[in-house]
Amino acid sequence: LHNVNRPHDQRDEMPTFFIAETVKYLFLTFSDDEALSLDTSLLSTEAHVLPAGDPRWSCGPEPPGGDGSASEPSVESVQTAQGDGISEPPGDTVLGDAPGPMSETSPVDSRRCVVAANDSMDSLTEALCSCQEQLRRAEQQLDERCEPLREVPSEAPSLSHGDPQCWNDHFTSAKCCSPPPSGNPGCWDALFTFERCCPSVPK
């Protein structure tokens, strides 16, 4: 792609690109240090030379004085400046009348925290017991409401309907004789019919 504004106008410039890249890497490999100073330049991922800018990264020990630029403060000077900037907290701290914000918690405060935690645990336990009691009552009410349904007699035909030879473990009157008027079609064939096996079922 030669021009992004003309995506359909494409050219095959691979030979030129190969020659240019080869010359570039040969120059970077065999050129003198004076030709390309790594103190003031950077190489991108494709070995393109870019100006470094400030701060300058020296490959060797920096001479004293340098180029007159301001030197960065050392760690010791920073720590000393921070130590000098710390002032004493206001108030009479010798007699202990004004404890700082980072003072340790007194035993009285610790006991208060323990008592408050125990009270909170007791209230949570009571709430849990109340929920369990409500759940037990709800289950009891549900059982009482479902009890009449359990006592309803089954309306399915009994096994005594029709010819006893019609029934076995897989074919029962409860499965085959309902629904009327012809029962379950999967139970019948030329020998076993609804009229023979379920004569007492109303049609």
Observed structural traits:
mainly alpha; Glycosyl_Hydrolase_47; 2 strands; 203 residues; 5 helices; 3% strand; hydrolase; metal-binding
Oligomer: single chain
Biggest beta sheet attributes? 2 strands, antiparallel
Mean pLDDT equals 73
Beta-strand residue fraction: under 5%
Secondary structure class reads mainly alpha
Radius of gyration, Cα only, in angstroms?
48 Å
Task: Give the CA-based shape.
Answer: elongated
Contiguous helical run count: 5
Uncertain stretches of 5 or more adjacent residues: 91-96
InterPro entries: 6hp_glycosidase-like_sf, Glyco_hydro_47, Glycosyl_Hydrolase_47, Seven-hairpin_glycosidases
Organism: Noctiluca scintillans
Biased composition (Polar residues): 71-82
GO molecular function, one term: mannosyl-oligosaccharide 1,2-alpha-mannosidase activity
